[in-house]
């Protein structure tokens, strides 16, 4: 007896308290058509089993985490499980799919003249902050000169 689980129930409980309107996706349909061929979506195995989550849903979850800076475990329930999204990002990064998708989308924006290459933004959260005054001046010396 062959059993396929196409209508397998979701593992996560549905969100019954949230907004009734779906949030706008990070990747619109035009952008998705530009990169869709990069993301593999294997068919359901003849042996059965749980079907894979579509890659677009996982990409939306990954982009939510990257945009918000939140932890994977804080991923809202409207996205696939945090573990699934994290694994897909890992696989896409290792295979170069994620970078190639970024290049295609950035190339499209550049073709539309929507990228200002003269402007750059740096984020300094990776560097340690210097606390207090430099070591050459101490608090007592600063008061003595005042």
Describe the protein in words:
This protein is mostly helical. It has 5 helices and no strands. It has helices at about 30-35, 55-70, 80-95, 95-110, 140-145. Helix 2 packs across helix 3 (about 80-95).
The helix tally amounts to: 5
Basic shape = extended
Helix content: 25-40%
Count of DSSP strands: 0
Distance between the first and last residues' Cα: 89 Å
Structural class: mainly alpha
Give the arrangement of secondary structure elements.
Blueprint: H1 29-35, H2 55-68, H3 82-95, H4 97-111, H5 139-145
Helix pairs in contact: 2-3
Notable characteristics:
39% helix; single chain; mainly alpha; 0% strand
In short:
The protein has 146 residues and is mainly alpha-helical.
């Amino acid at each position: 007896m062959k059993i396929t689980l196409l209508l397998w129930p979701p593992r996560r409980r549905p969100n019954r308290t949230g907004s009734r309107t779906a949030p706008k996706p990070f990747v619109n349909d035009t952008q998705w058509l530009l990169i869709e061929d990069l993301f593999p979506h294997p068919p359901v195995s003849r042996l059965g089993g749980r079907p894979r989550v579509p890659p677009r849903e996982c990409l939306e979850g990954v982009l939510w985490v990257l945009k918000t800076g939140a932890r994977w475990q804080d991923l809202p329930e409207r996205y696939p499980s945090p573990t699934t999204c994290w694994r897909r990002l890992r696989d896409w990064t290792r295979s170069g799919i994620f970078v190639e998708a970024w290049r295609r989308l950035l190339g499209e924006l550049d073709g539309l003249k929507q990228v200002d290459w003269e402007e750059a933004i740096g984020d300094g959260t990776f560097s340690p902050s210097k606390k207090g005054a430099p070591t050459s001046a101490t608090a007592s010396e600063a008061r003595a000169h005042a």
